[in-house]
From TrEMBL:
Annotated keywords: Oxidoreductase, tRNA processing
Species name: Candidatus Bealeia paramacronuclearis
SMART domains: RHOD (SM00450)
Signal sequence interval, chain numbering: none
Domain Rhodanese span(s) in chain numbering: 121-215
EC number, as in UniProt: 1.14.-.-
Reaction(s) catalysed by this chain's protein: uridine(34) in tRNA + AH2 + O2 = 5-hydroxyuridine(34) in tRNA + A + H2O
Protein name as catalogued: tRNA uridine(34) hydroxylase
UniProt key word Iron-sulfur: no
Listed transmembrane segments: none
Length: 309
C-alpha cells in the first residue's frame, strides 16, 4: 500500500525558487510522486510514497519553522496515484484571482469535524460548498448550497450575485481538505460577513473522524488523483475518472452511448473534436497492449485539474 498526503500551509515565503529546489531534491531522494505548488502565499499539494518516506518528508517540512504546523491529511492507495513528481511555482497556491485576499492576515473561525454538525444544523447559518460542480455532483453535505462553479475563480462572483452579507451574517464553508474554504473565508470577511466558519481539515478530515451513523455527509468525496473518490473512513469511493475530461463517472454514466473507455463520457463527448477522440483511442489501445505484456503504459497524462485540497 502507498501512503498519500494532502497538505497545505498559508505562510509568507520569500525564497520560493530555493524552496522549489529543496522540495524537488527531497522528493527525488525519498521517491515521492505527486504535485506540490509553491507561491509567496504558501505551499499546497498531494504526494504519495512509501509510508516511512512520506513521514520523513513531513518531518523535514515541520523542521522548517514556516511549516511547523503544516496542515496534512493521510490516506491510502493500492498503488501510486501519480506518475511523477512535479514542484511548480505559482502566483497562488489556490487561485481565487483577488490579490487583496490574504489568509496569512485573517481567516474565519476553524470548526472541528466534531463541532461541524452543530454549526451546519443551525437554521441561521448558510452553508456553502466552495468546490466546483463536478466535485459537488458526487457528494456534499446535507442542505449545502452548490455554487455551480467551474473553477474557484468563479466563487467571488457567485457570492456577490447571490449571498447578501446584510441578509446572511453567518456563513459556514467547506472544501476537500481545507485550503479553498480557508481562502474563501478570508474573502468573505473582506466582503463584510460577520461570522464566517470553515471546516478544519476539510471533508477528508470529517470523513476520517466522523462515524458514518452520525455523519451529515451524502455521497463520495472527489479527490485530485487516480483514486477519484473517497468515502467514509477514507475508504475507496464508487467512481472512476473519464480520461477525456477527468470528471468522475458512475456505472450509469458508463452505460451511456456517449461513454467510450479511455476516450469520452456524457460530460465531454460533445465538447471533444474527432482528432482528440482519435488520439485518446490510440492511447487506450497502447495501454491495453501494455497491460497484456504486464507493463504499465503512462503515455499522455490525463487533463490537468491540479491539487486543490
Amino acid at each position: 500500500m502507498i501512503r498519500v498526503a494532502a497538505l497545505y500551509k498559508f505562510v509568507k515565503i520569500e525564497d520560493i525558487q530555493k524552496l522549489q529546489v529543496t522540495l524537488k531534491s527531497w522528493g527525488q531522494e525519498l521517491e515521492i510522486k505527486g504535485t506540490l505548488l509553491v507561491a509567496h502565499e504558501g505551499i499546497n499539494g498531494t504526494v504519495a510514497g512509501i509510508e516511512d518516506n512520506i513521514h520523513e518528508l513531513l518531518k523535514r517540512l515541520q523542521n522548517d519553522p514556516r511549516f511547523s504546523d503544516v496542515d496534512y491529511k493521510l490516506s491510502w492507495s493500492e498503488d501510486y496515484p501519480f506518475y511523477r513528481l512535479k514542484v511548480r511555482l505559482k502566483k497562488e497556491i489556490v487561485t481565487i484571482g483577488i490579490p487583496e485576499v490574504d489568509p496569512t492576515e485573517k481567516v474565519g473561525t476553524y470548526v472541528s469535524p466534531q463541532e461541524w454538525n452543530k454549526i451546519i444544523s443551525d437554521p441561521n447559518v448558510i452553508v456553502l460548498d466552495t468546490r466546483n460542480d463536478y466535485e459537488v455532483e458526487i457528494g456534499t453535505f446535507k442542505n449545502a448550497i452548490d455554487p455551480k462553479t467551474k473553477t474557484f475563480r468563479e466563487f467571488p462572483k457567485f457570492v456577490k450575485d447571490n449571498i447578501d452579507p446584510k441578509k446572511y451574517s453567518k456563513v459556514a464553508m467547506f472544501c476537500t481538505g481545507g485550503i479553498r474554504c480557508e481562502k474563501a473565508s478570508s474573502y468573505m470577511l473582506q466582503e463584510g460577513f460577520e461570522e464566517v466558519y470553515h471546516l478544519k481539515g476539510g471533508i477528508l478530515k470529517y470523513l476520517e473522524d466522523m462515524p458514518k451513523e452520525q455523519s451529515l455527509w451524502e455521497g463520495d468525496c472527489f479527490v485530485f488523483d487516480g483514486r477519484v473518490s473517497l468515502a467514509h473512513a477514507l475508504e475507496f469511493g464508487h467512481h472512476e475518472s473519464c480520461f477525456g475530461c477527468r470528471n468522475p463517472i458512475t456505472e450509469e454514466d458508463k452505460s451511456s452511448p456517449f461513454y467510450e473507455r479511455g476516450v469520452s463520457c456524457p460530460h465531454c463527448y460533445h465538447h471533444q473534436t474527432e482528432k482528440q477522440k482519435m488520439r485518446a483511442r490510440e492511447r487506450q489501445r497502447q495501454q491495453e497492449l501494455a497491460a497484456k505484456r504486464g507493463q504499465k503504459h503512462i503515455g499522455a497524462v490525463m487533463p490537468k485539474l491540479g491539487p486543490q485540497v
